[in-house]
Design goal:
With 346 residues, the chain is an alpha/beta fold. It is elongated, with a radius of gyration of 25 Å. It has 2 domains: 152 residues, nicotinate phosphoribosyltransferase; 181 residues, TIM Barrel (Alpha-Beta Barrel). The chain contains 14 helices and 14 strands. The longest helix is centred in the middle third of the chain and has 25 residues. Strand 9, helix 12 and strand 10 form a beta-alpha-beta unit. Helix 6 packs across helix 7 and helix 12 packs parallel to helix 13. The two termini are 27 Å apart.
Length: 346
């Protein structure tokens, strides 16, 4: 593809998909040219261009269908950068209410109208993920929450999802690209696979301690082979002060991680003087479970599917001004919606 924006049906018909294309996700150029928009916006541009009014000055307002945390603003800003538009928005990470104006865009319609699908999608998905992340973090309070959701979504959007989780307030992300995009170091230790291949939890822990840099947390899974409390004590007795924590990820086939299990492991570690060893919990965590496990003694949480499976927050854009005159479709109020929360970003 070249970088010319798709504004005509002729361009749509001319768009060819390479037979050797490996992945179905859109690349940056395809997003920027409008290849991921809905066809009806191209039909709209055809009509307006034929009538000679495609450059009509309009003001559009974006709002969400439910309360949430706004995210995706930076991508929208990058998408519209360089176009003849003015954009005001709520800052990323800010809470908004249902039907509150999240973003306002002013300019000739042909400068941004065809991209409505694109920027609404950016805001919808990212805000949904950020909102779920905020709920998880609020449940954990001052205890760390790491996003482990990359494995649950398509890899093309995994960095977007985990970056949105960071905007929502979690303390870290395991996806390498997501963390780097947010200016952070990716967080995580090792999976069950390495324990199964090596055959012993303690042997893996010692190798990890020897090989990993000093700033890498020594937090080891303890549910692969033996009783979790027994395995926790084996590691603590060997690594002593070097062991930062143990991770409980007991599968649902064995009852999952329960408050009772957390209490027992905490008690047995404390009884032998290992109060410094934290208990990191992961596996199907929701805000409700986070609260229960936190009260039982868990000190940090890895949250995956609760964030990654969050529903997008439906976003809508209404045109509210055309050539300086208030307008609205039936059921909506004409003219700009009063708000003092928007900040000029373009």
């Amino acid at each position: 593809m070249n970088c010319k924006e798709i504004t005509t049906l002729e361009q749509v018909n001319a768009l060819k998909i390479a037979p050797d294309r490996k992945f179905f996700s859109a690349d940056h150029e395809e997003i920027e040219t409008g290849a991921t928009t809905d066809i009806y916006f191209v039909r709209t541009m055809e009509i307006l261009s034929d009538l000679g009014i495609a450059d009509t000055e309009v003001v559009g307002e974006v709002f969400g269908r439910r309360d949430g945390i706004v995210s995706g603003v930076e991508e929208v800003k990058n998408l519209l950068q360089g176009k003849q538009v003015e954009v005001w928005s709520l800052p990323e990470g800010v809470a908004f209410q249902r039907k509150e104006v999240i973003m306002r865009i002013k300019g000739p319609y042909d400068q941004f109208g065809a991209f409505e699908t694109v920027f609404l999608g950016m805001l919808a998905s990212s805000s949904g993920w950020a909102t779920a992340a905020r709920e998880a973090k609020e449940a954990a309070g001052d205890k760390p929450v790491i996003c482990f959701g990359a494995r649950h979504v398509h890899p093309s959007v995994a960095p977007v999802m985990e970056r949105a989780a960071l905007v929502g307030g979690v303390d870290g992300a395991s996806c390498i690209l997501a963390a780097k995009l947010a200016g952070k170091a990716p967080q995580g230790t090792v999976p069950h696979a390495v324990f199964l291949i090596v055959g012993d939890t303690l042997e893996v822990a010692k190798a990890y301690h020897q090989l990993m840099p000093p700033d890498a947390k020594r937090i080891m899974l303890v549910d692969t082979f033996k009783d979790e409390a027994e395995e926790s004590l084996r590691l603590a007795r060997e690594l002593k002060d070097a062991l930062d924590g143990i991770r409980l990820d007991t599968p649902s086939e064995r009852g999952g991680v329960t408050p009772e299990l957390v209490k027992e492991v905490r008690f047995r570690l404390d009884a032998e003087g290992f109060q410094h060893v934290g208990i990191f919990v992961s596996g199907g965590l929701s805000p409700e479970r986070i609260k229960l496990l936190s009260a039982a003694g868990a000190s940090a949480f890895g949250v995956g599917s609760y964030i990654s499976a969050a529903s997008p927050i439906d976003m809508t854009m209404d045109l509210k001004m055309i050539n300086g005159k208030p307008v609205a479709k039936r059921g909506r109020l004409p003219g700009l919606t009063p708000t003092d929360r928007l900040v000029r970003i373009l």
